[in-house]
Amino acid sequence: MALPRLRTVAVVAGAALLTRRALRRRIARSPLWPMPALPEPISGHSRRRATAIRRLTVTERTAVADGVVQLRLEGPALPRWQPGAHLDLVLPSGLVRQYSLCGDPDDPGTYTVATRLVADGRGGSREVHEQLREGQEIEVRGPRNRFPLVEADKYVFVAGGIGITPILPMLRALAARGADWRLVYGGRSRGSMPFLDEIEKLGAEGGRVTVVAQDEAGHPDAAAVLAGIAPGTAVYCCGPEPLMDAVTAVLPEGCTLHLERFSAAATARPADSGAFEVELHRTGRIVQVAAGQSVLAAVREELPHVAYSCEQGFCGTCQQRVLEGEIDHRDELLTDDERGDSMLICVSRCRGGRLVLDL
């Protein structure tokens, strides 16, 4: 009698094991099981950009200029990046701020960023300077790149102050391959300009680098910088808004302009549209967006963990996929391709009465 009983127990146990394995596979395909699995969202989990949150350790903190600190962040299996990319730093307070990667893309396991203390800013730089120390862990997202180094016959770079950070890896890459480039680097004083010694060494041959310290020579003359450059030249500019406006105004015909903003352009925004509703597709909730209220503010009342940072339409942190509805784009960042199916919910609105977001 014992043998048949043992056989029965073994069969039942085997069937239970197979059932558990099948159930795990089914749940993995759809965490909302028994509801049907939904396709992977772009919002917060984009295949087009690295959005996973990682915890990195601050292994080195260095003053690289007056009011500028450089952080070396280390962690396992870090995604590779290209010159022009930036990281989202999730600061201890919860603020999210973007900082350009200024280290070596071929240095595995390490990201390097630098930030200037802005006394009258929104608090992010002060938090970096006063609270982040060696040995501390910090959450990051990215890297992402909206300022890529394109192929061109020649390059002209115009950097102002901390605007040198996304440009520095580009200069290293171009110098290594013997490309034709030159840089005009401006700042309040030589002591306030990070990485100045390295940059002057990179451009020592051929006089590629012109340093314009405000306390010595005033501001860079954008018209003089761009005078006579050949068609096909790629012009890169990063720095204060007046500098980028000046370069934009005098860009020669046949040249391409690439800008990296640290703040929203000082242009008037269109008046807010009226109220409309937003459906959150993954939860089925309906959110009412009042006239004068941002989509971000309304959505965060239901989903408080939706990521955001600048609230001015230039950083891209709050980009969400739009499944239905006509978008009233008011950002300064998205490409024409991205505008077809996504929006920055901190500033953009709806041209009709309803939007459906992939949230």
Description:
- This protein is of the alpha/beta class.
- It has a 6-stranded antiparallel beta sheet with strand order 4-3-6-1-2-5, with helices on one face. A 5-stranded parallel beta sheet has the order 9-8-7-10-11, with helices on both faces.
- Helix 7 links the parallel strand 10 and strand 11.
- It is globular, with a radius of gyration of 25 Å.
- About 7% of the residues have low confidence.
Number of beta-strand segments: 18
- Strands ordered across the widest β-sheet: 4-3-6-1-2-5
Query: What number is the mean pLDDT?
Result: 85
Number of helices: 9
**How does the major sheet shape up?**
6 strands, antiparallel
Radius of gyration: 25 Å
Order of helices and strands: HEEEEEHEEHEHEHHEHEEEHEEHEEE
Q: What is the global morphology?
A: globular
| Helix content bin | 10-25%
Q: Give the terminus-to-terminus CA distance.
A: 59 Å
Taking pLDDT < 50 over at least 5 consecutive residues as the criterion, the unreliable ranges are 26-50
Note the beta-strand portion.
25-35%
Structural class: alpha/beta
